[in-house]
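Thread: "does anyone have the structure for this chain?"

Original post by V.I.:
We have the sequence but no experimental structure in hand. Need at least a predicted one for the grant figures.
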Amino acid sequence: MAITGFWPIKDNISRVIDYAVNPEKTIAPEDMTDDLKKVLRYTSDPGKTDKLMYVSALNCPWQQAYEWMTATKKRYGKLGGNTCYHGFQSFYGKEVTPEEAHALGMETARRMWGDEYEVLVTTHLNTKNVHNHFVVNSVSFRTGRKYENHKKDHQRLREVSDELCREHGLYVIENPRSHGLSFAEWRAHKEGQLTMKDMLDLDMRECIDRAVDVRDFYRLMREIGYTVDYRCKYPSFLPPGGKRPLRLKKDGRSMTEDDIEEMLWDSFERQTEILVPKSEKPFVPYQKQHGFRALVLSWMYVLGWIGKGKKIAYRVNREEVRKLKRYIRQHDLLEKYGIDYEDQLDAHTAMRSKEYGELETRREALRKEQRRKKEPIPEIAELTKRMRFVRRELRICEDIKADIPKMRAAFEDVPMIEGKPLYYEEER
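Reply from O.Q.:
Generated one for you, tokens below.
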């Protein structure tokens, strides 16, 4: 099984080539020595390179890939725009050996670009999945034509890779997604957070279970803060706090109204009740504590982030769910300094503000002395580090003062934010 990716590069080719041929990534771990300089000298020997580094090229020597690609651009007078293209081909786990992966990468490059473009192919061994990198010149050495990078080229790269996997008896993903996760989505999932798309999917499924028909579904989505546009083939939903509308997805494809209606009929738990604001106070699990610390803990419980073995009892507006790290930082600071009341928070803020001013004055004096003596003073770096810590605590204190009124409102009889219910009754 192999997954592929491909994107344009606008800066210098040498940066991409340096990354692709990095010895720490392309040399087998068992061939690495303690002295990296010895390794580099060893790999520069043409008679030994192929034994260690998984680096090859098509239509140019890999050691001079940058010079040859640049010469092609100059020959045809096409130095602007995209300088090259960077692609990858990643194999699952130990499915292939480094030698097999490199051979498959070379054959993939040959079928894709071998007739017209200079291509550098490297195999990286520094992750749990062996993967190839392709650096493709943006200008053809044969015709001078610039590579146009159409969507069909991405599809062709995947088809060629799958074709080679089938030929070599490797597993192939049938009906793959059209594209992978963005970096922001990948990082959010890695940190255990929800993205806007995740929250849209959760809200969509909850409203599907409660809607009578498609129009009722749209109404329920509007009730919880979405802006709905169903005038086109694929309805779109702008989440609360979102910057752009999103489409509903099912099995990797955008959903139409017919798909929504089909999901309504398939839902056995569909109800006719609408979401209504709770009128009574929600359960507070930390009654033994008082003040800010208890308030922040209770708020995190309402968000569903704490409470071992408990189900989420309330669903809060989705902007709040995305602020997990903010509330964790607030709780850690309050717990660290035992702050429970506003006068304590003000005193801590004043103390940190005074400390920051003193540190800034001291650092400025040392900087003047450093300029006069023209010698580095290590204490400046230590002061800067301490100032960064103090500045972060001051920002957290400001966030606490801004958020406390909202948290208190959550435990009033009819909690509202900007005229909208803060949370809704959750049926589980």
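V.I.: this helps a lot. The CA atoms of residues 105 and 132 lie 6 Å apart.
O.Q.: and The domain at 2-167 is CATH 3.30.930.30 (BirA Bifunctional Protein; domain 2).
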